[in-house]
Design a protein that fits this description.
Layout: H1 9-25, H2 31-37, H3 43-55, E1 59-61, E2 67-69, E3 82-92, E4 97-98, E5 105-110, E6 120-126, E7 140-145, E8 154-159, E9 162-171, E10 174-178, E11 189-191, E12 195-205
Parallel strand pairs: 3-6
Antiparallel strand pairs: 1-2, 3-5, 4-9, 6-7, 7-12, 8-9, 8-12, 9-10, 10-11
Helix pairs in contact: 2-3
């Protein structure tokens, strides 16, 4: 297979912008949105970048005229590519605390972890109720947004507008949110209703 021409800095930046749009909006940016993000003054300049990505095989057009990325899983050019993931305050690992919905920061994350087109967010853990799963007080927890979970998944659950990180277990009509800690003061939370799964924990990053 012939090796493609390397991407320019502008093309790499355009790829990052497109990936962020796919992750956070679920769609490609418009030419004008790409123009604004690249600080261009003309939509034509942004359109030229898209044409270059098409020519290099990074993007391809589908039958309906819309665009998508080609399969780049093994492409060296993209192994260090990132998307911006929002940090949304703190989450309780122990006694639940009120979940903050404001975005504290945007953090670049490798697409090997935050895989488009799924949506992700960070929350900062608080407490030691999940330290046997490697989630410690102050760690940033990367969460893939979804509303379902399998037994054994570590989830972010919302209970009466408060968020907590626990191991998910369903037993009949009950859901048990289990702590995984060497601190034995923590007890399981047993629920039948009035809770909502916010996502599945992908990994945690030590306090930065």
């Amino acid at each position: 297979m012939q090796k493609q021409n390397p991407l320019t800095k502008i093309e790499l930046e355009a790829v990052r912008i497109i990936r962020n749009s796919l992750v956070h909006k679920g769609s490609f940016p418009t030419v004008r949105e790409l123009m604004n993000e690249l600080s261009y003054k003309s939509p034509r300049s942004a359109a030229v970048v898209i044409e270059q990505l098409l020519e290099k095989g990074i993007l391809k057009k589908k039958a309906d005229g819309s665009m998508q990325f080609r399969d780049i899983e093994e492409d060296e050019t993209f192994r260090a590519q990132t998307v911006d993931v929002p940090l949304l305050g703190s989450v309780a690992c122990g006694m639940p605390i009120l979940a903050e919905e404001n975005i504290d920061a945007m953090i670049p994350v490798s697409i090997k972890l935050a895989k488009p087109p799924h949506k992700y967010f960070f929350l900062r853990a608080k407490g030691d109720s999940m330290n046997e799963k490697g989630i410690n007080d102050g760690d940033m927890v990367l969460v893939k947004q979804q509303v379902t979970a399998n037994n054994g998944d570590v989830v972010v659950a919302l209970i009466d507008d408060e968020a907590t990180v626990k191991e998910f277990s369903r037993q009949g009509d009950m859901v048990i949110l289990k702590p995984r800690s060497n601190n034995k003061k923590h007890s399981p939370i047993i629920l039948t209703r009035d809770f909502q799964i916010q996502g599945i924990v992908i990994t945690s990053i030590q306090d930065l």
